[in-house]
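User: Quick one: structure for sequence A, then sequence B.

Assistant: Sequence A:
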Amino acid sequence: MRAVAPRSLLPLVFAGLAGLPSTAAAEMDAGPFAEGSIRISAIVGVAQQIDNTAFILGAGAGYYIVDGLELGLEGEYWINSDPSISKISPNARYVLWFVPVLKPYVGAFYRHLFVGAPFDDMDSLGGRAGAFWVSGGGSYFGGGVVHEIYVKGCEGDDCSETYPEIVLSFSF
């Protein structure tokens, strides 16, 4: 019996469920989600505030500590925002890299919001799920849904939100 590294077990289980030989699963390439890969991302968006539209600019980076498991950090700055808003967010994401064509992902994050006076800073916890399509050359495109719950700085019944995300990343 051949010994299998722990990070290789999930693809072997998937291969068994899909009826693939275990040797095929062991030889699969994790592509841009491979251990040691680095991801860089640009964040661009728009948010509607009470009486104005804010433009969101930011950047992110991540490192795959094992095949499919990324630890990352993202930051945002909201332009034309009143009050001013900046965000910093450490996160973790697992990509099911061994799934053919669309690669499902799940993730979790903590986010700290630096909010301008007279408001207090806020903290949130969240999760995300979606799928990536690898376009070759280390880049991938995808989308999903994010659910975020504000755990500090929010009062009342409106302390969570769910919103879509679109992702275009480059890995090297």
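Sequence B:
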Amino acid sequence: MPIYMLQDEVLDFPSVNQSTKDGLLAIGGDLSPERLLVAYSSGIFPWYKDGEPILWWSLDPRMVMKPDDIKITKSLWKTIESNKYSCSFDTDFEGVIRACATVPRSDDQVEEEEDKDEPSTWISEDMIAAYCELHELGFAHSVEVYQDNELVGGLYGISIGKVFCAESMFHTKTDASKVALYNLCQFMTRNNLELIDAQQETGHMKRMGAAPIPRKEFIKMLKGLVKEQSLVGNWGNGNAELLKLEV
């Protein structure tokens, strides 16, 4: 199946049904905020290595999780109740995304042996700049986990309507990324956000409560959820506001 080549002046993507078997949909374009918002609203995300052209994906099946479905083990609950970690939102977005790019992933985040102890090399400087711009515009958000004022875990993603599109997470201390996910789920429940798009299936997210669903079902859910008002702005300082987006 031929791969669709994006034009710089056109933001629209082809139907996700035109994806290859492994989910590749299109190539090219840019990482402008407008294109990224259109992509995520359509169930599409960029994923490519530095030096490659931009590749756009829409996977089938799609890994998703509702905030109330998060699984908390006894050991994780003990960590949460110990208060050894503190958690914040949108206080160090760039610090989180750079840690996700450089901190090696451990075996509770990936399943394939060859991927262990490797950083997320697909988070290039161009991607960091693009998502930091989305953060400044109030659409990309981070969850930070600290221990003794040191950033030891976190995650980041894009929020549109009632969906949080999770991009990556990291930890340097036990359970720190899980604490970030727990606090994200608590925040989403308080603010009526309904779905986490975890994109691809991993054992880590499955153990946390995510499950794969057919892309057709995901796109149907997504179309309704992204039409709802978006909580735009800084999630940590109380200045975020609900806005209706046209994407």
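The chain has two domains: 4-57, 62-243. The radius of gyration is 17 Å.

User: Thanks, that's what I needed.
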